[in-house]
Amino acid sequence: MTITELDPRPAPDLSPRRRRIPRADWLARWTAAAAIAGLPVQLPRGPGNTSPADVIILVAMAASVLWAGSTRQLLKFPYLLPVSTMITAGSIAAVAGAFPYAGTVALFQDVFLLAWAITLANVGRTKAAAAFLLRAWCVSGSLWALGLLAFTIHNASTSGLATAEAVRASFTIGEQNGAGFYLVVTFFMILAGRWPRKLRYRIPVLACLLLDALLTGSLGAFTGLLAGLGLAIVVRTAARRGAAAALVALLVLTVVGGVGYRQAQHYHVVERAQTSQQVLLRNSIGRAQQSASERALLTQETLQLWRSSSPLGQGPASTKNALYRDMAPYPKEAHDDWMAALVERGVLGCAGLLMLTGEVVARGFRVGSARRLGPGFSAAIPAPHYLVGALAALAVNTFTHEMLHDRTTWALLGLLAAFSLWNRQAQAKRLESPAPPPKPVPTAPDRRTR
What we know:
Blueprint: H1 3-6, H2 23-37, H3 52-71, H4 80-96, H5 100-123, H6 127-159, H7 161-166, H8 176-193, H9 199-216, H10 219-241, H11 243-266, H12 269-274, H13 279-283, H14 288-307, H15 319-325, H16 337-366, H17 370-380, H18 385-398, H19 407-432
């Protein structure tokens, strides 16, 4: 009889096993992933600009609250201070302004979108959870890109190509610029997550996203795409070659962009696009002068409205109503977040927006390279510089459209907070963990002893 047969203890299981995810964690992750996948489902519209996507987001919020309560998780609240400042400024302006109902609805939207970002930031607290949410965006965005393109091709085959191209596509989002922004952010997410894993599958998906974005005719989306790619190159160069090489890359990209702009003016690219037989060119590049003139007129009207208003602001979502009241020639909502914050929420609201911008920039700096992410979270996002590129696309769009009430914006900020919050905590735990005791060094026996 051997010694092994006499040992009553079971033999250790050396086969590799996956760590089982608790049911509460599983529920929180999958509902958050479903909410990310449902971002484009924004039709039909309900009261207060609600949409079917909001129902899925509410389910994800409820599941995350149950998960946090049942597992006693320590929650963190990114963006709370700047958004609270903007909400406070909006509340004061709505009470003092002439359009309190519209302001109240806008404030509820602020709270809802902040809670959406906080939900994603806390659900993605581990490397596996953050990678799962990022992969959910990549998978769902890829399927949306293929499905939207197939839908467009089907419409072209049934109603004629000219009819399908004559209208800028808004797909299921209902607004062309919002659709273009979602597609561009999804483009950057796929680059950051490197999913699909195989390049021969990833390239067709990226091409579908670009074609879908072209069908929207959104100039802000393509300007943001170029700015995001440029910033991603600079951030990647800084991480690999240092600050000097990044500065050289920035100067080269600036010169190339300036030369390209001058060449476009010299060869009258916009004018030729206006008279082109290609409807896609007329709906995108051909609208550049018209969009610029309309935006300049609206900016002039909004500035005049700000000069005649109180420093507290007119109240959230009140620009269009105020311009109608003053019989302005182009009564529209403010076309950028900065002018909207200043006119509608006053000086305090503009300060809150500056605080939010500073926090986003700081979080983008923390996740810009694999070295700052750490070994754990860097495996969850293989190319983090493209996440910073998505932030550049968002920054460009804030100067052309109101993005702070966009669900995609806060989903992006929520994932950014997840990668920037919990990677620092993981690194701190590794630093605080005690080092393993040193192995004893064998010493030679003393030959003088007997």
